[in-house]
Amino acid sequence: MTPRMTLDTYEESERNALGDAMDVMVSAFDPAFGEAWTLPQLAGVMAMPGTWLTIARVDAAPLGFALVRSVLDECELLLLAVSPLWRGRGIGEALLNDALRTARLKGIRSMNLEVRASNIAIKLYEKLGFEYVHRRPGYYRGNDGQLHDALSFRLDMLG
Ligand SMILES: CC(C)(COP(=O)(O)OP(=O)(O)OC[C@H]1O[C@@H](n2cnc3c(N)ncnc32)[C@H](O)[C@@H]1OP(=O)(O)O)[C@@H](O)C(=O)NCCC(=O)NCCS
Known about the structure:
Layout: E1 5-11, H1 18-28, H2 39-46, E2 51-58, E3 61-71, E4 74-82, H3 91-105, E5 110-116, H4 121-127, E6 131-141, E7 147-156
Parallel strand pairs: 4-5
Antiparallel strand pairs: 1-2, 2-3, 3-4, 5-7, 6-7
Residues 28-29, 79-82, 87-93, 115, 119-121, 123-124, 127 line the site of coenzyme A.
């Protein structure tokens, strides 16, 4: 992790970090897959109880974020993104570890996620102990109309 980096967490209904998350969003997701969220989508989820957003910053500049939604003792990693210029320095891993730590502090027992089967992010999820659950064929449609399978992963956080 880069030494000047800070991780700041914003709970549901806090809207002041949405712009920072959108700054990362527009550069982090390949437009071919249509996976980036819009500001209204992000604001809509942030308004839901049990949601939190963590922003990674260096010298106040946002360079990554994680978005998690929890219901009772389960949570879902909705988005994880690092700006392209900052990749490969452990920031995605730090954000995900922080999300897991926050989840444990809230008494949450498992984290789920869904990811495009060709996404390199799967390497990170497996590194942190997520286990493959199932495949949904043709679940995502790219901007070119091509269908992509989704894989779902789960991490049980007992103990
Ligand atoms: C996935 C993503 C968040 C990873 O962020 P990152 O900061 O570059 O990842 P890290 O540097 O923390 O990598 C941690 C581990 O993940 C794996 N990993 C990450 N990027 C990798 C790559 N390009 N190739 C292979 N393994 C990779 C490795 O296991 C790595 O550990 P190692 O360095 O010990 O080998 C980033 O690539 C990204 O923003 N992608 C676009 C958005 C996206 O698709 N998000 C996921 C779905 S919401």
